[in-house]
Amino acid sequence: MRRIVVSFTALTALMAVAACSDQAQQTGGATGAGYNSGATAPQRPTGGVMSEAERLAQMQREFQTSVGDRVYFATDSQSLSADAKATLDRQTAFLRRYPTVMLRIEGHADERGTREYNLALGDRRAQSAKEYLMAQGIQGSRLSTSTYGKERPEANGSNEQAWAQNRRAVSVIAQ
């Protein structure tokens, strides 16, 4: 009998905690326009339930606009500038606010240099951003890296303006 009472009490406590949780945590941190505040599942403006892919896409848009999803590097460098660190500090705050969110950090390079060199440089840039986030207290298990080298340019062109946009690390919300 005591076992039943203890089990019932534990179940009741669990249900109470679940009922009191923050909507931002229930939806993985994505809140705002398009959500029905009285519903337990995110809603589309048309009233339908938002799919997981749509929820992630909306969260990524919010991450890009309010936090900043990319940091830029100097030529042939993986060193973080003051601006890059400021962006990564905002990403740290976001990740602390939403402890279930995971990031994939993608390293990129401009078109100059060999494919192999740029893949390695992109990897070093992604690792540099990851290491900074980890130094700020973010668990490494929440962060992964990939490199694209010069394969996915942000800007087309063979000039300093295009190259500067392509020397980057981009953080993408991952599941």
Description:
The chain is of the alpha+beta class. It folds into 2 domains: 1-50, no CATH class; 51-174, OmpA-like domain (60s Ribosomal Protein L30, Chain: A), CATH 3.30.1330. 47% of the residues lie in helices and 14% in strands. It has a 4-stranded mixed β-sheet with strand order 1-4-2-3. The longest helix is centred in the C-terminal third of the chain and has 21 residues, at 115-135. The radius of gyration is 21 Å and the shape is globular.
Task: Set down the secondary structure blueprint.
Elements: H1 2-20, H2 23-26, H3 52-67, E1 70-72, H4 82-97, E2 102-108, H5 115-135, E3 143-149, H6 160-166, E4 168-174
Parallel strand pairs: 2-3
Antiparallel strand pairs: 1-4, 2-4
